[in-house]
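We give the entry.
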Amino acid sequence: MNVFEKYFTIWDLTPDGELLRTQSSCLLPVRYKNIPAMLKIATISEEQSGGLLMLWWNGEGAARVLEHDHNAFLIERAIGSGSLVSMAKNHQDDEASRIICAVVNKLHAHKTPPLPSTLVPLSHWFQSLESAKKQHEDILIQASAIAHELLNAPQDSVVLHGDIHHGNILDFGSRGWLAIDPKGLLGERGFDFANIFCNPDIDVALQPGRLEHQATIIAEMAKLDRSRLIKWIIAYAGLSAAWHFEDGSNPEVALAIAKIALSILHP
């Protein structure tokens, strides 16, 4: 608890829940001026960059940063009872996708200069796919080729969240649905919608016809060309599979999504 103690004093905080440690941060629910908040200590640079991006968004589409100090961020806490994961699993998948798109559209619309200095070019992330395609599934070669096509001729580049999925957009009660845990990238806006198709779990993601149906809904809500969105799904799914290969986890869902999307792109 020592890592939090000085912030109890300087920000006048009261603990309000159990400490959670992840590979990238330490999180503690607190009360701040009688408001529920989350005190987050970033333990890696990516999390610190994400906190600075949330500060730049200034509460527009993302949780508001109430206080910050180097790698410490005091963030408003989600208090609503809604869950996009639960919605997607319980016959409200379309509505969940529309909510996600509305939030992401708001994030992408924020362009107040100067941009955060810690943003990473989207192309840097795809180096993992380039490495993985040499050792693994043939489908990664196809995904890599499509990623090169998209990255070499980007359209409508914006500040990207980088990890949009059902668990990273939460119900903040009267504040509505807001994003948390951004990575902080700079690139084509279509990328931010691709991970929706790999989530919220294998049962939903691989439902027959789900990808085709959601692609139509999301392309309409996000005002994207549907075919180009399909390409981003393939590129992202290939990248996700590459990450799974890197850390020794199961790439099953990512590879399956890439194959389905390829079959739609090239029927």
